[in-house]
Amino acid sequence: LSVVAGILKERGGRFGWAVRAGALVVVFAWLAVLDDGGRLPFQLPEPGVVLVPVAVGLALAALFRAGEWQRCLECARRLRDTAAAKSHGRAEPMSPDILRHEGRALSMLGRHAEARTVFAELTRAYPESIEGWRDLAASSLALSDLGRAQSAAERLIALDQQSPAGYVLGGLVSERQGSL
């Protein structure tokens, strides 16, 4: 029910995530049922392992349904404040996980300029972060900062030539520039 409510309620980028959550639940629950009945030509891991994506999908759906992105942002900022306090003023980079969560929550809230600032901080502190460059390109694209989006997409491709996200984001920039 959470999954269906999330899909019916959300629009835009959140709709896509709600659909992904629903797909996780349906596909992995279906695989668990098939495996339980011995109808698969291969052996799946323990049921608990197979049901982890189902739980993640349900959690994502509940998150969308309840509009919890603000709460996620507040949690990420509390973690950031705690980490900063523990560093006692030392110039240590923030955890990449905290920065990613904060930036993604801001993106989901439609606060793309703030998200871009967080992703820029992430890529400065962790220049090899593939996810950081991907998210920086996406937030820059959302703000129509095509130059920054293109350079972030190029950096992403340089780090991982197999990353479809780098090519897709670069293509979207080219499309917006009218050069496709």
Explain what this protein looks like in three dimensions.
With 180 residues, the protein is an all-alpha fold. The protein is 77% helix and 0% strand. It contains 9 helices and no strands. It has helices at 2-9, 12-36, 47-66, 69-86, 96-108, 112-125, 130-142, 146-159, 164-177. The N and C termini lie far apart (42 Å).
Low-confidence stretches: none
Radius of gyration: 19 Å
Largest sheet: none
Q: What fraction of the residues are assigned to beta strands by DSSP?
A: under 5%
Distance between the termini: 42 Å
Helix content: over 70%
What is the approximate shape?
A: globular
Assembly type: single chain
Number of helices: 9
Number of strands: 0
List the helices and strands and how they pair.
Blueprint: H1 2-9, H2 12-36, H3 47-66, H4 69-86, H5 96-108, H6 112-125, H7 130-142, H8 146-159, H9 164-177
Helix pairs in contact: 1-2, 1-3, 2-3, 4-5, 5-6, 5-7, 6-7, 7-8, 7-9, 8-9
